[in-house]
Amino acid sequence: MDNAEVPSVPSTPATPGTPGAPLFGGFKGGRGVHGRKSLLRSCKCFSVEEWAMEEGRLPPVFCSLPPPPVSLARKVGAEFIGTLILIFAGTATAIVNQKTQGSETLIGLAASSGLAVMIVILATGHISGAHLNPSITIAFAALKHFPWKHVPVYVGAQVLASLCAAFALKGIFHPVMGGGVTVPSGGYGQAFALEFITSFILMFVVTAVATDTRAVGELAGIAVGATVMLNIFIAGETTGASMNPVRTLGPAIAVNNYKAIWIYLTAPILGALCGAGTYSAVKLPEEDGDSNEKTSAARSFRRADVPTNSSNLSKDPQNLLTWALGNMNNLELQRERDSQRDLSSPTEKDGDPRLG
To answer: Does one domain contain both 83 and 213?
Structure first.
């Protein structure tokens, strides 16, 4: 098989330990893997020569592909930078809109925040999970997708980033800074309801794309960014569509304006908790009944038919490894179907040559 014919390796849509966003990268073998003419089998290396090719079929293989470990310091650093970019972009657009008598319009405000969320998720999601929001961090911890012991560090980084962005904008645009603070234009009850609902919608989508391997995967940044834009269209004129306690806290401290700040500190957290819990309640059950295996982004594959030119695969271990990894999704589905068939019809087991 030529290298051009080898299927690409699918990426893993979620990473353990940083479940706030997907991992945008496929498996990469170590330098010594191809040099030793070996394949991964249950995270151990066996030479190709030791593998028996039974009737043109591969032996059963079960392989987990864990993400590379990331230190907490790197995660917190990425979270700080990502939150800084988000708060700076969203607040700066609001300030410019006020300074230019509304030239940015609501569409411009929504596009600015949505694009900021999208690019930050794509840039830092594989490092920190790109929470960018204490509400998301707390909601993930409540659902056991994020360790509680890391919550104070993450929230501290987010608050510090918000303060840095707000005071930087104050120095740049002073004295025109009022437009960067989110305050309700209507009643407090209306503002609380809108912040709760928009945060619910946001967290429902975030939970789907960040914790469910069957969701949009690599399009997570686009999905979450589009959700932010939608929510700004819904609540932007009434509450500023904060959806994020630190989006309000930093600018409020910078200009000493704390009007109805309790709404922006409580409603997003409550809405996020309800949104995450709702998706967890309605999502499809795990295909193999083993949620631990799914949440760890483990991949498994079983015996599969080797193409007609299998001699090229056996001669070139790099092609064989790439081919096997490229077919692991189809093999996983086939393994599940065979398992269900064996349970319902035990007599078919002896007649199936793939089960040896």
So the answer is: yes
Average pLDDT of the residues in 47-69: 53
Cβ proximity of 163 and 247 under 8 Å: no
- Which DSSP helix (H) or strand (E) runs through 202? helix 188-211
Q: What is the mean pLDDT of the chain?
A: 75
Question: Which residues, at least 6 apart from 321, have a Cβ–Cβ distance to it below 8 Å?
Answer: 29, 33, 34, 39, 40
Other CB atoms within 10 A of residue 157 CB: 24
Radius of gyration of the chain (CA): 25
- 98 and 216 together in one domain: yes
Asked if residue 114 lies in contact with residue 232, where contact means CB atoms within 8 angstroms, the answer is yes
Query: pLDDT band for position 176 (50/70/90)?
Result: confident
pLDDT of residue 175: 77
How many residues are listed for the chain in this entry? Answer: 356
Q: What are phi and psi of 47, to 5 degrees?
A: -65, 150
**Residues of the domain holding 315:** 299-356
CA distance 62 to 11: 17
Cα–Cα distance list, 272 to 100, 178, 279 (Å)? 34, 27, 11
Q: Are residues 275 and 311 in the same domain?
A: no
Backbone φ and ψ for 236, nearest 5 degrees, come out as -60, -40
Domain tally for the chain? 2
Please report, to the nearest 10 degrees, the dihedral formed by the alpha carbons of residues 97, 101, 102, 104 taken in order.
-50
Could you tell me the two tokens for 243? Answer: 């959806």
- Segment 309-313 shows an average pLDDT of 49
Q: Is residue 356 part of a domain?
A: yes
As a whole number, mean pLDDT of residues 238-250 equals 94
The confidence score (pLDDT) of residue 60 equals 53
Query: In terms of domains, do 241 and 326 share one?
Result: no
Q: Is the dihedral of CA 344, 347, 348, 353 positive or negative?
A: positive
Strands (E), the chain: 38-41, 44-47
State whether residue 174 is helix, strand or coil.
coil
